[in-house]
Amino acid sequence: MLTSHLLEKLEKKHVDALLITHRENIAYMSGFYGSLGALLLLENPVLFVDGRYYTQAKEEAPNYEVILVKDSFWETISEHIKSRGIRRLGFEEGYISYGIYRALRRKLKGISLVPLRNFVEKERTLKRDWEIERMEEALKLSEEALSQCLNVLREGMSEKDLAVELEFLIKRKGEELAFQSIVAFGERSALPHAKPTQRKLKKGDVILIDIGARVKGYCSDITRVFFFGKPNEDLLKIYDAVLEAQERAIEGIREGKRGGEIDELARDELRGKGLAEFFTHSLGHGVGREVHEIPSLAPGNKEKLPSSAVVTIEPGVYVEGLGGVRLEDMVLIGKGSSRNLTRFPKDLRIV
User: Fold this and answer.
1) Contacts of 301 (CB under 8 A, 6+ apart)
2) CA distances from 136 to 148, 178, 336 (A)
3) Architecture of domain 2-124 in CATH?
């Protein structure tokens, strides 16, 4: 059903076939997940793999013809494309290097190469029930790890120590991280994408943790902030402001709203408190097979949000030398309202 639907969309673009090379798109379409592969989407789709993945591909993609590439990967694909009488070939412009593009142009003379952006990704935006269930599993695991980590916090432990604990708690369940955890203490929490360091935890520190798990191919993403001992009064005010900004955006998000509109809801809330200049990134992003997908909740984004997409809502305020606060939930967009998938509490917590 999905293949026929995409073929209809390709036909409207006057494209005979699509060469899919992005690993997550191949997995979404076929079920095969390997480090090297290419999927030729046409009436009878073909999956190309090398000897490392041939048996795996046949097992994971039983509904696809699997071709074992023994020699040159792109030479084999090019010869097959020519044999199928394709005249206009779409390709994923974001995932083909210039070198490969030049090689394809050389090998496919007489065939027009048509760049397509977010072609499969737009289908991936619309989450089916079983996909949402997997993301909820991943989110539950992240929340469990986050909760357990609060029990091991101790003065003198490093950001790296805490990051290792988080990774262990997720991997112990047989799963993997969706991304490298962000753990930042004190003034380092003002770095939105801080990498864990040997910085030691001390009394009065703010603790920012941004983690995600990947379960059965689907990701979660959650950020929480805690205080280790008596909090700084300015940071307490920032925490309340960020929470109010997030709640306003969650209340306002639904199908048909534009990404930029939802960003502005949160930004306007912070603007009223004189904090908007310290909110230095977009409000959120899609989540699914990848931790960063479309749609985007970015300033000025005019694209309408679809029902059944899952996005993060993560306003943040970052003050250099003081610290930062970010709260991040995953929200399922609905028609009249939306559902917050994140259950971890957001009441201010001093540990």
Assistant:
1) 258, 259, 260, 263, 282, 295
2) 18, 13, 21
3) 3-Layer(aba) Sandwich (3.40)
pLDDT digits (tens, 9 = 90+) for 29-65: 999 999 999 999 999 999 999 999 999 999 999 999 9
Please check whether residue 90 is in contact with residue 15, taking contact to mean a CB–CB distance below 8 angstroms: yes
Q: Which residue has the tokens 């902030």?
A: 225
Q: Which residues of 66-98 are buried (b: 16+ CB within 10 A; e: fewer)?
A: bbebeeebbebbbebbeeeebeebbbbeeebee
| Predicted model pTM | 0.93
Tokens at 112, concatenated: 């027009």
Q: Structure tokens of 292?
A: 């960063």
**Residues 285, 242 contacting (CB under 8 angstroms):** no
Is the distance from CB of 125 to CB of 286 less than 8 angstroms? yes
Close Cβ partners of 89 (under 8 Å, ≥ 6 residues apart): 15, 16, 17, 18, 19, 81, 108, 111, 112, 113, 114
Residue range 155-214, pLDDT digits in tens:
999 999 999 999 999 999 989 999 999 999 999 999 999 999 999 999 999 999 999 999
Cβ atoms of residues 201 and 229 within 8 Å? no
| The token pair that represents 150 in the structure block | 């609060």
The vertex-123 CA angle with 82 and 5, nearest 5°, equals 60
How does DSSP classify residue 276?
Answer: G
- Distance linking the first and last C-alpha atoms of the chain: 51
Domain coordinates in residue numbering, the chain: 2-124, 126-340
Distance, in Å, from the CA atom of 249 to the CA atom of 333, rounded to the nearest integer, reads 12
Fold type of domain 126-340: Creatine Amidinohydrolase (3.90.230)
Host H or E run for residue 17: strand 17-20
Amino acid found at 113: L
